[in-house]
């Protein structure tokens, strides 16, 4: 388990590009045949990627979180960004197509990731994906809530933005205060419409939650320019497909792509009100 210690906005002006990437970019979450996890001390979030690649992967406990099993004191949101796969939680099998979201609550002991559906051998799906790629987002939990699976389009769907400002997008809210119940996690998937490049613009902060983005469905030769930092001290990261960004509570989180893309957004912290934001108008940015 890689550890990333918390940072504060006073550090931003002196950081080089390499230092910014080392602190806030998670470039290699998806490794075939492995579970990869990164612990950030910002709200004690754990980001992870599980890529079965034909082999069942068991989610272990880690000494860094001082638990006998991973979900002993935590909850977990999972979004599949690859081909169809299954997650087995204490014997219950959940099938996740691409874009589906599964919530697992505190106390679930055994979690296993696998390729394919519950009844069919792994095969290439409609999007050309040949294997499941599970994105993991975990936060501490004070109690246990039931596991819940939400398929694409079954959550709360919001249409946002405008084609004239290049930010027309469809937002699927899965784990949130009016959807799947959790202790801290708020999680969903946003898909940009063709011809749109900007997400979350005008930008915002929310000083009560840490938010992480996972960009995916980005062409191999395309990139997202992700903005971070305070509104008067902005910086950027150049982000490729299936790379994640850790955005502390004091930081902006917005991006523009060289092509349309999709991203998983996930938050944990003080509250679960999705619209609890502190706007950062474009005219305030520097």
Automatic annotation (TrEMBL):
InterPro entries: KduI, KduI/IolB_isomerase, KduI_N, RmlC-like_jellyroll, RmlC_Cupin_sf
Documented EC number(s): 5.3.1.17
GO molecular function: 4-deoxy-L-threo-5-hexosulose-uronate ketol-isomerase activity; zinc ion binding
Keyword Isomerase found: yes
Reactions catalysed, as given in the entry: 5-dehydro-4-deoxy-D-glucuronate = 3-deoxy-D-glycero-2,5-hexodiulosonate
Keyword Metal-binding: yes
Cofactor binding, per record: Binds 1 zinc ion per subunit.
Cofactor: Zn(2+)
Pathway in which the depicted protein is active: Glycan metabolism; pectin degradation; 2-dehydro-3-deoxy-D-gluconate from pectin: step 4/5
Pfam families: KduI
Entry keyword set: Isomerase, Metal-binding, Zinc
Any Gene Ontology biological process: D-galacturonate catabolic process
Record-listed Zn(2+) binding positions: 204, 206, 211, 253
Function: Catalyzes the isomerization of 5-dehydro-4-deoxy-D-glucuronate to 3-deoxy-D-glycero-2,5-hexodiulosonate.
UniProt family annotation: Belongs to the KduI family.
Protein name, UniProt field: 4-deoxy-L-threo-5-hexosulose-uronate ketol-isomerase
């Amino acid at each position: 388990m890689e550890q990333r210690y918390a940072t504060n906005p006073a550090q931003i002006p002196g950081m080089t590009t390499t230092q910014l990437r080392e602190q806030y970019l998670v470039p290699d979450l998806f490794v075939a045949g492995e579970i990869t996890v990164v612990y950030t001390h910002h709200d004690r979030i754990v980001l992870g990627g599980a890529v079965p690649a034909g082999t069942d992967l068991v989610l272990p406990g880690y000494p860094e979180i001082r638990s006998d099993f991973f979900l002993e004191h935590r909850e977990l949101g999972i979004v599949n960004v690859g081909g169809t796969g299954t997650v087995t939680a204490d014997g219950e099998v959940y099938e996740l197509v691409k874009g589906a979201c599964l919530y697992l609550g505190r106390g679930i002991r055994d979690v296993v990731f696998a390729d394919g559906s519950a009844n069919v051998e792994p095969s290439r799906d409609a999007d050309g994906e040949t294997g499941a790629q599970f994105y993991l987002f975990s936060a501490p939990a004070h109690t246990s809530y039931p596991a819940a699976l939400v398929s694409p389009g079954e959550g709360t769907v919001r249409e946002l933005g405008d084609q004239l400002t290049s930010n027309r997008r469809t937002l699927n809210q899965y784990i949130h205060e009016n959807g799947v119940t959790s202790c801290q996690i708020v999680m969903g998937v946003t898909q940009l419409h063709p011809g749109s490049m900007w997400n979350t613009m005008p930008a915002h902060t929310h000083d009560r939650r840490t938010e992480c983005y996972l960009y995916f469905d980005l062409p191999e030769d395309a990139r997202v320019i992700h903005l971070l930092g305070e509104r008067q001290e902005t910086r950027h990261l150049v982000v490729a497909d299936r790379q994640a960004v850790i955005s502390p509570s004091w930081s902006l989180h917005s991006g523009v792509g060289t092509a349309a893309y999709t991203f998983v957004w996930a938050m944990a912290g003080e509250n679960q009100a999705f619209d609890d934001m502190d706007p950062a108008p474009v005219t305030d940015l520097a």
